[in-house]
Amino acid sequence: MDILPITDTARSLGSSSLRVFPLAYGCWRFAGTDVRHAREKIESALEAGMTLFDHADIYGGNGAAEELFGKVLAEVPHLRDAMVVATKCGIIPGVPYDSSPAHIARAVEGSLRRLHVDVIDLYQIHRPDWLAHPEEVATALSQLRTQGKIREVGVSNFTAAQFEALQHYLPFPIATHQPELSAWWLEPLRDGVIDQCTRRRVTPLAWSPLAGGKLGLTSDAAKRETNGERLSTLIECLDRIAAPQNASRSATALAFLLAHPVGIVPIIGTQRVERIRDSLEAFHVRLTRTDWYAIVQASMGKKLP
Ligand SMILES: NC(=O)c1ccc[n+]([C@@H]2O[C@H](COP(=O)([O-])OP(=O)(O)OC[C@H]3O[C@@H](n4cnc5c(N)ncnc54)[C@H](OP(=O)(O)O)[C@@H]3O)[C@@H](O)[C@H]2O)c1
What we know:
Blueprint: E1 11-12, E2 19-20, E3 24-26, H1 35-47, E4 52-54, H2 64-75, E5 84-89, H3 101-115, E6 120-125, H4 134-146, E7 150-156, H5 160-169, E8 176-178, H6 187-190, H7 193-200, E9 203-206, H8 219-223, H9 228-242, H10 249-258, E10 265-268, H11 273-278, H12 289-300
Parallel strand pairs: 3-4, 3-10, 4-5, 5-6, 6-7, 7-8, 8-9, 9-10
Antiparallel strand pairs: 1-2
The protein binds NADP nicotinamide-adenine-dinucleotide phosphate.
């Protein structure tokens, strides 16, 4: 049986000139340590080959993740040269969403300052704001691009239709779409987001590719989670595929995403240096078409017709 192609070759973000390693490092859980440990994680990700670092202004609360990252860049400025720095705006706890032009303009200044960078390579709208007309969002983003404050634009947690509405008013293509996507959360494969990425040559960035750690649970612990029987069946399926090739379950779950032909970039979220390195094992996992669909069916809890 043919093995699905999985490559560690750098890929473009959409049709932009930004190129990234196919695994990215996510900074949601990054805050709360000293600068030394933060630097160790960034350097480990870079040494592993990762180039895209994903932030949001709310990570860590009040920009704490961006600020810690910026302290590392202030200490070792040359690290910036190897990076594609991504961040997001638009979530304000208690509001909860604001993508008005005034807020976007304020938010970008805060992120630039905290991250200690002159330009944000990929600026993403974190969640759709129903009260912001896509035309005004597009105008705000275009202005930031013209001013050289951001390079490319992405969206996160948008429906395919919300993506189209924003794209309609933008004079340049959206580079990335960041949905939740993992062996456990397959919705973007069904709701049109991944098809849209394929058709428009947009790069999907998969958030929580290990389901936020659920895919690391023991089968027994998984049974205690919501939809536990199905989660534990998925875990057992991943283990069955991983074991004969001495692969880890998490590498197999990342390989599942990397094997999709659209070119998904999983954003890993571990805060452990050894797990950052181990994620590279994903490029050595061999998955057949049957394995891939076995994971889908275990995740769905039913056979495909
Ligand atoms: N756009 C959005 O709305 C959105 C939402 C959520 C996340 N994100 C992005 O996605 C990134 C990744 O999200 P995530 O952190 O949820 O990703 P994840 O990689 O699915 O989960 C990371 C969690 O799983 C644990 N873990 C990793 N490997 C494990 C293993 N082998 N066994 C047991 N536990 C394991 C980690 O613990 P350790 O640290 O102990 O390894 C960590 O708590 C974020 O940093 C952020 O950039 C975006």
